[in-house]
Protein 1
Amino acid sequence: MIRQADAAEIPRGPVAYSGEPGAFAEDAVVAAFGDAERLGLPGFRAVFEAVSRGGARVGVVPIENLVQGTVREVYDLLLEFELVIVGEVVVPVELCLAALPGQRLEEVERVYSHVQALGQAERFLRGRQWDLLTTYNTAGSGRLIVDAGERGAAAVLSRRAATRLGLEVLADGIQDVADNRTRFVVVAREGAMERTGDPGSPLRTTIAFAVRNEPGTLLAGLRAFADRGINLSKLESRPSRTAAGEYVFLADLDADAADPGCAVAIDDLRGVATMVRILGSYPRGDG
């Protein structure tokens, strides 16, 4: 559960997430914050905007799935907004196919869900002649079918969401990987909340940096961590959006940015980088 800062320092308001009640993001909110006030929003950008403007005290967004990999839009939003990561939570993802009551699997013609969920159940879905249609959220795909009373359609979502919406499960456990899970991060305004999660968990630091587009510059930046025995558990690149062929790198370090060795490594990185930004140090959700 969340370990918060002093009450006077905590911004008031709900915990924002992308999706409808019953979405996996809501599962992540409950896992981290318990029965806190929740605010479902139509998209990841809306979550970042709500936290930035004070309409939500924190936001919970997916950053990585075991099957589909990185949620690139969230990385781009982390670079765009001046928010910090204060925690993370890992949520199991079990998917089902559900439709209006009385529908049979043979009657399904269209399947709705978020693009990530469709990809996570690709083996099951591609074995049938269905039109696959993307929506902004898994639970939202079920809501779409219910609101429209759409027969011949089904949604890929969680069993909890299907039950909540009054849908009938036609197939269960359709995810490609039995141990499928999604890593969510908690984002907040700088100084608004302490690190969240289990204080005894190992720490992870997420940084963003850019280097000159020249041979050896990226290697020199990464060597700063290797020389001090700091493991990079993940390295991503995103277009800088400032010039063609220029990229920003995002890395997960298995360390606390405040530790002396890591702090010196980041200082060394600054010596070869054109930009360095610490996006947050926080307890690992799988630690």
Protein 2
Amino acid sequence: MASRQAFPDYVEVDYEAGAGEDPEDYPGTARKIEKAIEVVHEGLTEYERPAVMWTGGKDSTLTLYLVKEVVEEYDLAMPPTVFIDHFQHFEELLSFVDRWADRWDLEVLFARNDDVGDYVDAHGLDPGDEIPVDELSGHNRHHVREILEYEEDTFPFLLDTYVGNHLLKTVALNRTLEAEDIDGIVSGIRWDEQEARADETFFSPRHDPDVYPPHDRVQPILQFAEADVWGAFWSYVVPESVPDYPEGHVPQDYDDLPDGVTHADLPISPKYFEGYRSLGSEISTERSDQKPAWLQDLSTEERAGRAQDKEDLMERLRDLGYM
């Protein structure tokens, strides 16, 4: 058992679990799901105020589905979900989150940096427009100047930049963690997504109070590769979420749905049917191909359709509290 810092003093998890492993150590979708269920169950029983990070994307929706399965199997309380509203989402994604939050009876906590959002609304800004640092609140100015050490007078209102990502996502998340007293947040990150996540463990401590509200990250699907995620959707998530969905049917194009089934019936964002493999933001994400995401060459870079500024700074952003 790894040594623990003072917080959380009531939690006993192995912070080294998963160290040095990769997806090949968990052969087959069933084995990967078995491990995920184990991690989720431990997370929901070890933490007093757990929550689930939900972006509406495939990884976090799979994670949310697994949490629901554990809750039902062990008669546990369903934790709230945390959705980071960074103001630059695809409209279809927002509709998807609203629809499935209602269908699955979820409590959704919307994490927003209202200081930035209110300035954008008041001045009618569009993505890419500049925001003066001096117009921000003292808390946000502290993050820009002291934590990020950013020296320019303005920064662009864009999600996939160093300052934009930190203020719109990380600061918003950390405020929600603190306000809701969340001690463990279940996150759907994977080892194969990015180099910065390859060394993550199933339970990852975030205990430095000078950087973020002390908490742990519970990461049950680290062992899934992108293809495994889609395999889990078509073998488990969809058939068990959509009444009478024909077993084994994997859509081959946008319109290839079983009789009586619409996109609104599926726990999968329609953007994946349109060829997007990643749903970062409407402004900075492009489709990878014309084919649905699960039919594409999944050996290629998953996030190639995203702006690269954020991806190149992932390690620094992770140290500041990014997922």
Protein 3
Amino acid sequence: MSKNKSNAIDYLTLAPMEGVVDHMMRDLLTRAGGFDLCVTEFLRVTDALLPKRSFYRLCPELEQGAKTPCGTQVRIQLLGNHAELLAENAARAIELGSHGIDVNFGCPAKTVNKSKGGAILLKEPDTIYRVMHAIRRAVPKSHTVSAKIRLGFDDTERFHDNVRAIQAAGVNELAIHARTKKHGYRPPAYWHEIKSLESFCTMPITANGEIWNAEDANACMLASNTNRLMLGRGALAVPNLSAVIRHQARPMPWSEVLELLQQYADFNIKGDNGLYYPNRVKQWLTYLKLAYPQALSLFSDIKTLKTKAEILPFLQAE
């Protein structure tokens, strides 16, 4: 486990957020600098080796060396419970250029958990071990294999068992959302629980959860005793939060946020039916309003609008 010898960040990751942080959002949020890695939304593995097009659809960055336009590395995340199939798909992702493989054991969605994926597996350390061991054997040692977990499902009873299982499987890195599935996304995050791993964990640990500003980042590093952080909702609320935390930058002014919202409209979405931008820009505003009061007003102005052409004049008028 990495030790927090100062408040300087060693490694900063943009979190995977299903249905939110796609390749276009990764592009926008990494432009500010500060991020070392992006992890994709999960690719669900159920009963087959997925075709190459599934990987490219999830991670178009594979076409450019698995990096965002500004050069931040991208790692594909898999989700499932079938060890051998996950291993096959992990090997394919590496062949296509992914910078390592991440495995999701943290998703709290009921539909995912019902199909025995995501956080439900935190009840089964043995399954976690089998999955990670198979993937580690299938992926060349020169490539990083990581996992993302929560503190547990209903409670933290199996937290240490799950971490031991992941470490025993030969995993290189572990990210921990410092809440249980039962906690969901309700504050606070229990960063101090991560520190309890020090007695046996030798993997680098990345702490995640409730990091909204530089003060939170410092508090998290102190409580968890790791200098590796992962940003999710906070990076959507303050689009340059990575630079705020990493380089002591000022939070992006609203005028620059508006520019990003307009640039978001310039992306061409393959197969788009015209709903992508209207839906996603409203979704983004629900995060932005946590840091910018202007976002609430803008959301009220555009919430009933259904096309890009209707929305853009409101961004320009601001």
Protein 4
Amino acid sequence: MPRVEGMISMSTFPLFAVASLALVLVPGPNHLYIAARGIAQGRAAGVASAFGVETGTLVHIAAAAAGLSYVIARSATLFNVIKWAGVAYLVCLGVRALTGGQETAARKVVPQPLRAIFLEGVVVNLLNPKVILFFLAFLPQFVRPEAGAVPLQIAVLGGTLLLLGLISDLIYAAGAGALGDRLRGRSRALNRVSGVVYLGLGVVTALTGRSV
């Protein structure tokens, strides 16, 4: 099959695209997080969290291209530091959402700024050990060292995954935002949903192993 020097084989790229599409179509932690944000605060919040999550993916792509993902995944200490930092962050978000819901009867809740939601999405994805393992165990299967420029191949493959993931995320954000609009006025219930999702994601992150 023809290929450009330093780039991916034309037979490899379509296979990766199909595999990536199958992965992003299956609801996962990112989708749950984005849906929780969209339900709790509307479509704009869901979209902001989606862009935040995929900005985090961009950082993971750069780390994988530089070989940092491999180092982190192979180091039990570094991997566990990132994993438990992610667990602590998600648990804090969950507790904040659950306790914040108790205050809604006394005062009007001030919406979280979209910039803060965006940054929250970045942090959630950066501290997700499953993403690190994905870039170590899945993506390298489609890299062909004999084609040259491995970092460039990782960037192209990762960028493809990011684009597909962003489209999927935005669909979830729009759907969750629409659902949130229908439930608007039930702030306590919405906060409880968000809190349970965050705590659930914390448990999933805590159970993530290092084996690849």
